[in-house]
Design goal:
The protein is of the alpha+beta class and 397 residues long. Helix content is 29%, strand content 37%. The protein has 3 domains: 99 residues, Beta Barrel (conserved putative lor/sdh protein from methanococcus maripaludis s2 fold), CATH 2.40.420; 94 residues, Efflux pump adaptor protein, beta barrel domain (Elongation Factor Tu (Ef-tu), domain 3, Beta Barrel); 149 residues, RNA polymerase II/Efflux pump adaptor protein, barrel-sandwich hybrid domain (OB fold (Dihydrolipoamide Acetyltransferase, E2P)). A hairpin with a 2-residue loop joins β21 and β22. GO terms for molecular function: transmembrane transporter activity.
Length: 397
């Protein structure tokens, strides 16, 4: 019995010892590698350097060009549309109701100011002439009567009250004549025609419509014998010796534009065909359709160009200046859609640097951002440097 208790005690001691050892043993942690390959990492904040050995440097013999910057006038490109110039376009309309009895000119005909275009036969016009003739006769009668009464009053044959009444009646007759004259002038009858009404007992109730400006008949809206209402359009006359060009500038560029800025105007298809002008005015608000700021340029046309309705290209030279950085075209290459250059850091090291291109003209690239004056870029062996930079990327992977 005693031996059983001894064995039981030994077993309990062994269990206790094992438990103590298991509690003191260090735990192992499992670390999961979450890093991604270098080719998938974001390179926007990482500078990529291409390091050449002395042998590679001597074999490549890379030539570099120092970057220079200068301040030049800011140039803004914008689309433009040609419109008739203010004061050089006119809608011809009839001032009275009537019937078109004569059409003197047709579309494409050149006309001079004052030239007869249409004839409108109108009862309303006949009534205006009749009213004028009655007023003319009444005014002449009252003027003669007043002159007689003034003589009789001087001779003390007539009273002063009769003279005052005759003066008032003459003034009323004169006012009626002025009113009838103004109505005829309002419908476009010249003084020479009005003078003929009083000299001749016969007249035709036919109104002559004349051209208000020199120009070309662009459009006829009526036909012979057509009845027309007052203020109805008959035709349109354009004087294309001067035109209005409206340019549509983005709100961001509009802050740099002001009246007086020089503009080079060219055809959209032929940029070598240009005409120079200056901004006449700048509209204060945004155009509702294009959401752009409209600039107005009034220019004389040259050999009939530009014509109203034509689309043009505008290059506006702003008075504001900007710093321009230019590099040779052979220094530029692309990684996909990203333009890049290789900037020299030291004799054996070049940096692969992305840049933003403003525009490319001829053999030069104008850089918007990414380079500074004083830096040097490789202008030869650019494709070799590009291949080495790709090899470094693969090596990292």
């Amino acid at each position: 019995m005693k031996s059983k208790f001894i064995h039981f005690g030994i077993v309990m001691i062994l269990f206790a010892f094992a438990a103590c050892n298991s509690g003191n043993e260090p735990k192992k942690e499992v670390v999961v590698e979450t890093d991604v390959p270098p080719s998938l990492k974001d390179d926007t904040e990482k500078t990529m350097l291409i390091k050449l050995s002395d042998k590679e440097r001597n074999e490549l013999s890379i030539k570099t060009e120092a970057i220079k910057s200068e301040f030049v006038d800011h140039q803004i490109l914008a689309p433009g549309v040609v419109f008739p110039s203010p004061g050089h376009s006119s809608i011809i309309s009839t001032p009275i109701n009537g019937q078109v009895t004569a059409i003197k000119v047709y579309e494409g005909d050149r006309v001079n100011k004052g030239q007869e275009l249409y004839r409108i036969q109108s009862l309303e016009y006949g009534n205006l002439i009749s009213e004028y003739l009655q007023a003319y006769a009444q005014e002449a009668f009252q003027k003669s009567r007043l002159a007689r009464l003034e003589q009789l009053v001087e001779e003390r044959i007539s009273s002063t009250s009769e003279l005052e009444q005759a003066t008032a009646e003459y003034q009323r007759a004169s006012a009626s004549l002025k009113s009838a004259y103004a109505k005829l002038r309002a419908v476009g009858v010249p003084d020479s025609e009005i003078a003929k009404f009083s000299d001749s007992g016969n007249f035709e109730p036919t109104l002559k419509i004349v051209a208000p400006i020199d120009g070309v008949i662009e459009k006829n809206f009526v036909e012979l014998g057509q009845s027309v209402n007052a203020l109805e359009n008959l035709s349109r006359v354009l004087d294309t010796h001067e035109v209005l060009v409206r340019g549509y500038v983005s709100p961001g560029d509009a802050v740099l534009v002001e009246p007086g800025n020089a503009v080079d105007i060219s055809k959209r298809e032929q940029e070598d065909v240009t005409i120079k002008g200056k901004i006449t005015s700048v509209n204060p608000g945004l155009d509702e359709t294009s959401r752009s700021v409209v600039v107005n340029i009034i220019i004389p046309s040259e050999d009939g160009w530009p014509k109203p309705g034509e689309n043009l290209r505008l290059a506006i030279t702003s008075g504001s200046q900007k710093e321009t950085v230019a590099i040779l075209l052979q220094a530029l290459t692309y990684d996909g859609d990203q333009p890049i250059v290789f900037v020299k850091k030291d004799a054996n090291t070049f940096e692969r640097r992305p840049i933003e291109v403003d525009q490319i003209k001829g053999d030069f690239v104008f850089v918007a951002s990414g380079l500074s004056a004083g830096e040097e870029v490789a202008v030869t062996k650019v494709f070799s440097l590009k291949a080495l930079s790709r090899f470094d990327i693969i090596s990292e992977e």
